[in-house]
């Protein structure tokens, strides 16, 4: 049901709001040794993590020095240059779908929260550009998007450093006869969002990004289909799109509208909004499902009084906001006993950071427009309440949880030391110059010893629904870090570093 946005001065039940606030705070009673956090230090480390995920020839200012150049021949099998970009997680494959989503969220973090990043803004922008330089290579041929480098089955059969890779670096692409509107739509969104980041910093580069976003989106929309159908053997079950591609098309159009202000994208969104179904998917946001993100992104225009024709998106965004509030009858998001957002499946922290980003972003939009969201039963989602909910999730990640463990490597007194990550778990090239073969790395995978290389800033998949966490490499769903966990976290940490 659509909900009306009321002004911040509207009456709501103070008692119910206090009860809801106490519900949010209650898990803190179970936390061991909770302390104030250094959000700026965590921001610094969360950006540094992306340097540990770099593929290709590393720049002179590379700060994570135990990494070396890798995958310098990527793309050669197809006669193109596809060096660079990011390894998405603890393996050595470059998956284009999650990399594009990571890029979009890095850019959105800079757009909405860059002003509070201080001296780390420069490094955050570098993290965006490392991704967009690669995406420009991947989209350089008209009507083609290179969406993956590396055979995942070959890669997952080995435990080896990216610097030693001898697994198949097969190149996968989508084109007019093998479409992939999902990955192409997300790539268009990433390029468009990044064009905003570079608009004043590097105007020619910004224009190139926007023009490429436009052409990639046109390709995605004209040649419709799921890349999971075209490339099932390569992308499934790793990054198989189970949600369909319509949301990525709207997501791409939404970012193109924001970046270009062109009427054609506004009309496209309005013409195709019926494809964005609500229901169960309204509370989802991640590399596969863009529903909640689309609604929050577009809602800003409505809240600022600039786009009443997008009212349905604002209504959906409000439904999402009310659905994530704990302690009210209609809550549709599960929380662990310690207060962490939890969704079934692997790598739960991806949901925690992405949903928390949306909650905080919407809190800011409400605050700037002097609005609150009435959620029924006399409860209103105020900007302050939403900020508290987002902060509670960030604090849990940084150590305010039943185990008293930070889930960011290198932050706090206790953090995961046996993460599921090849480069981190194997001796560095400096420490072990000789090559370590495909199966020779297995002894490091099964070792009970901590990883020799600290992947500073990496946030792992996190604890299970009971707040339990096995610090062990084979438990990859809990101990593997990913770029799309960290990307939304940049915005959250930037905000709380300035606003505590």
Automatic annotation (TrEMBL):
GO terms for molecular function: cellulase activity. This is Endoglucanase. Gene3D superfamilies: 1.50.10.10. The keyword Kinase does not apply. Its EC number is 3.2.1.4. Residues 1-33 form the signal peptide. The keyword Acyltransferase does not apply. The active site is at 420, 471, 480. It comes from Trapa incisa. Pfam families: Glyco_hydro_9. It catalyses: Endohydrolysis of (1->4)-beta-D-glucosidic linkages in cellulose, lichenin and cereal beta-D-glucans. It is an enzyme of class 3 (hydrolase). Belongs to the glycosyl hydrolase 9 (cellulase E) family. GO terms for biological process: cellulose catabolic process. Keywords: Carbohydrate metabolism, Cellulose degradation, Glycosidase, Hydrolase, Polysaccharide degradation, Signal.
């Amino acid at each position: 049901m659509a909900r009306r946005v009321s002004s911040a001065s509207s009456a709501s039940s103070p008692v119910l709001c206090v009860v809801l606030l106490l519900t949010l705070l209650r898990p803190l009673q179970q936390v061991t040794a909770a302390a104030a956090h250094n959000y700026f230090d965590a921001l610094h480390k969360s950006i540094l993590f992306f340097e540990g995920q770099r593929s290709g020839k590393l720049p002179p200012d590379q700060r994570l020095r135990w990494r070396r150049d890798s995958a310098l021949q990527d793309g050669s099998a197809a006669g193109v240059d596809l060096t660079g970009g990011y390894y998405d997680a603890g393996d050595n494959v470059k998956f284009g779908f999650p990399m594009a989503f990571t890029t979009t969220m890095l850019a959105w973090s800079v757009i909405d929260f860059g002003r509070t990043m201080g001296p780390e803004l420069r490094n955050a922008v570098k993290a965006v550009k490392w991704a967009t330089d690669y995406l420009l290579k991947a989209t350089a041929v008209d009507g083609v998007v290179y969406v993956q480098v590396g055979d995942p089955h070959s890669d997952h059969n080995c435990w080896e450093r990216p610097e030693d890779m001898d697994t198949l670096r097969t190149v996968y692409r989508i084109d007019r006869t093998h479409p992939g509107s999902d990955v192409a739509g997300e790539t268009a969104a990433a390029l468009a969002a990044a064009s905003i980041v570079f608009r004043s910093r590097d105007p020619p580069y910004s224009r190139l990004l926007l023009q490429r976003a436009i052409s990639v989106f046109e390709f995605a929309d004209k040649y419709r289909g799921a890349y999971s159908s075209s490339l099932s053997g390569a992308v499934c079950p790793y990054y198989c799109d189970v949600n369909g591609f319509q949301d990525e098309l709207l997501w791409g159009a939404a970012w193109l509208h924001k970046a270009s202000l062109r009427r054609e994208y506004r009309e496209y969104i309005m013409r195709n909004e019926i494809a964005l179904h609500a229901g169960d998917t309204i509370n989802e946001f991640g590399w596969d499902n863009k529903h909640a993100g689309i609604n929050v992104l577009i809602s800003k225009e409505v809240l600022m009084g600039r786009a009443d024709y997008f009212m349905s998106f604002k209504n959906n965004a409000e439904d999402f906001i009310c659905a994530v509030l704990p302690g009210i009858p209609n809550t549709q998001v599960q929380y662990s006993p310690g207060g962490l957002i939890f969704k079934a499946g692997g790598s739960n922290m991806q949901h925690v950071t992405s949903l928390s980003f949306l909650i905080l972003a919407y809190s800011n939009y409400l605050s700037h427009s002097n609005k609150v969201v009435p959620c029924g039963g006399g409860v209103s989602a105020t900007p302050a309440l939403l900020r508290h909910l987002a902060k509670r999730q960030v604090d849990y990640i940084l150590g305010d949880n039943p185990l008293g463990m930070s889930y960011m490597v290198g932050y706090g007194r206790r953090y995961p030391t046996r993460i599921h990550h090849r480069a981190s778990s194997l001796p560095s090239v400096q420490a072990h110059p000789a090559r370590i073969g495909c199966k020779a790395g297995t002894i490091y995978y099964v070792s009970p010893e901590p990883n020799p290389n600290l992947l500073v800033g990496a946030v792992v998949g996190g604890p299970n629904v009971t707040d339990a966490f096995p610090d062990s490499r084979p438990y990859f769903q809990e101990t593997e870090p990913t770029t799309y966990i960290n990307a939304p976290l940049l915005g959250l940490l930037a905000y709380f570093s300035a606003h505590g």
